[in-house]
Amino acid sequence: MRNIALVCAVALALSGCAEPFQARVSRFQTLPAPQGQTFTILAGDPHLNNSLEFAHYADLVTAKLRAQGYQPATSPEVATLVVTLDYGVDKGKVITESDPFYGCAGYGYGHFGYGGLGCGGFGYGYYGGYRGRYHRSYVIGYDPLFFGGYGEVESHIIYTSGLELKIDRVGDHQRLFEGHAKAVSSDDRLTYLVPNLIDAMFTGFPGNSGETIKITVAPPKKS
C-alpha cells in the first residue's frame, strides 16, 4: 500500500494533462507606455530568422505586444522598436528518487529546489508543468541514504528550458526591456515549452523592474 501511495503521488505530480505550467520570470524594464510605437521581431540566432518555426513563435509574441498597445511595423525599416526573441531547452538531467517510506533521510535535488524526500513526503520546489515522457526504473535493495533501510529507487529525466526577450529602441539602440523565463519539465518539446514561456513572460507585462517572480500558466481547457 505504501508503494502504491508513492507511485500515485509521483504520477500526479508529473501528470501532463492536469498540471499547470510554472516558470520563474525575471524582468528589467524602462519601457514607456504605448504611444504609437511599432516593432519588428528578430531571432536571437540570426539563422532562425527565415525559420517557419521561429515565425510561429514570433506571431505569438506579436499578438501579446498588440494586446499591450504596440503595433507591428509594416516593414523592419520603419520600426521604432526591435524585439529580439531567443529560446531553447537543454539535453535533460536524470533525477533519481528513493521511496521515502523506507527511511527518514531527507535530501534535495540541486539547483531548482527539489526538496526533501524523507519521512514527511516530498515536494517539487519552485517548478511544475511536468508533462510528456516519464522515464522510470526500479531498483530494490539497500539505499545508503536511508540509514540501512531497503528501498525502491526510481528515476526520470527533467529538462530545463528558457526564453529571453529583449526590446531596443531604434536609433540610439537603448535597451528598454529585458526578460528571462525559465522552467523545468519532463517534456523537451519546444512546441509545448515556448508558447508557455511566452505566456509566462507576458503575464503582468512589463512587470516591476528587477523583480523575479513565479508565474503559473493554467493548462488548456479540455474541449
Assign a percent range to the helix content. Answer: 10-25%
Which segments are poorly predicted (pLDDT under 50) over 5 or more consecutive residues?
Answer: 1-17, 102-149
Q: How many distinct domains? A: 1
Tally of contiguous helical segments? 3
Q: What is the oligomeric state here?
A: single chain
N-to-C series of helices and strands: HEEHEEEEEEEEHE
- Beta content comes to 35-45%
How far apart the termini lie comes to 35 Å
> What's the total number of strands?
11
Q: Outline, from the CA principal axes?
A: elongated
The helix/strand class is: alpha+beta
Q: Largest sheet, described in full?
A: 9 strands, mixed
Radius of gyration: 21 Å
Mean pLDDT: 76
Task: Give a verbal description of the structure.
This protein is of the alpha+beta class. It has one domain (1-19, 26-218). It has helices at 2-13, 52-68, 190-201; strands at residues 21-29, 38-43, 71-72, 81-89, 93-98, 115-118, 121-123, 139-142, 150-169, 175-185, 211-217. The strands form two sheets. Strands 1, 2, 3, 4, 5, 8, 9, 10 and 11 form a nine-stranded mixed β-sheet that branches. Strands 6-7 form a two-stranded antiparallel sheet. Helix 2 (52-68) packs parallel to helix 3. Mean pLDDT is 76; it is low at 1-17 and 102-149.
